Amino acid sequence: MKIFEVETKRGDVLFGCLYGEQYKDACVIVTNGTCGNIFENKFLQVVGEELEKNRISFVYAHNSGAFHRMDSAKNGEPIGCTYELFDNCIEDLQAYVDWAKATGFKHIVLGGHSYGTNKVVYYLSKNQKEKIEKYILISPTDTGCFKDHEQKSADELMPLALKLKKENKIDELLPIPFDDYNLFTARAFLDFVENKNSKNLPIYAKSGSWDQLKKIKQPGLFVMGQNDGFAFGNTLSHLQTIAKNSSAKSNVIKVIEKCGHTFRNKEKELSKVILEFTERDF
Prior knowledge:
Layout: E1 2-7, E2 13-19, E3 26-31, H1 42-53, E4 57-61, E5 70-71, E6 78-79, H2 89-103, E7 107-113, H3 115-126, E8 134-138, H4 148-166, H5 186-194, H6 211-215, E9 220-225, H7 235-244, E10 252-256, H8 267-279
Helix pairs in contact: 1-8, 2-3, 4-5
């Protein structure tokens, strides 16, 4: 595995993890979800190793919401999900797509995990002419629908964030983490909750829209762990709803049994599903 850098138009420097550097036929690029990174998401390490064995390149593409905090090598400003603004994903993903094209890959597959799936949908809806032949949504989430404990946390943080905004302190950290997990600035929290562009897989929420997904013409792989809590007990129906609202006619749905959001102990099964989808028609 090789670490490389890409630079966004904003000047942020992001770190990609490349498996199978020597193979130039096909490249699968998968971007992270909230705080996601190569160290914590073991299942994507296994995916990279499996694709490399089969002569396919794989990139774990850290976006500007990777980790909790990083310092950009370009301008020194902090990035990471504590500071993340969703719309920056367009430039983040474009930096990796541009890298893949410049590297000379014949086929490019773009994917995301969790919150990264919403970024992939948004990016593809805006960039239909890009050289991307397929896409992958791994553990796709409806960001407009919170679990009960997440909603309780959001309700607690909202007045604090609005107070900081009113006081022109919107870039200050909120005093308590969201859902006992992630510290946000007031700006990043409000963006996470209110940005309509990220509400593009409205499986449960009535406030979102399927318009972005409907613009995507490439075939997609929609894959999820059977016990993923973001499917609220019915993973197959969760994925079928996404497929039903897609314009493509050759999507693939896969449920990986006996695992959750990060496919613990089922990493190889996930790898085989991604490999089979990637090799199809190539």
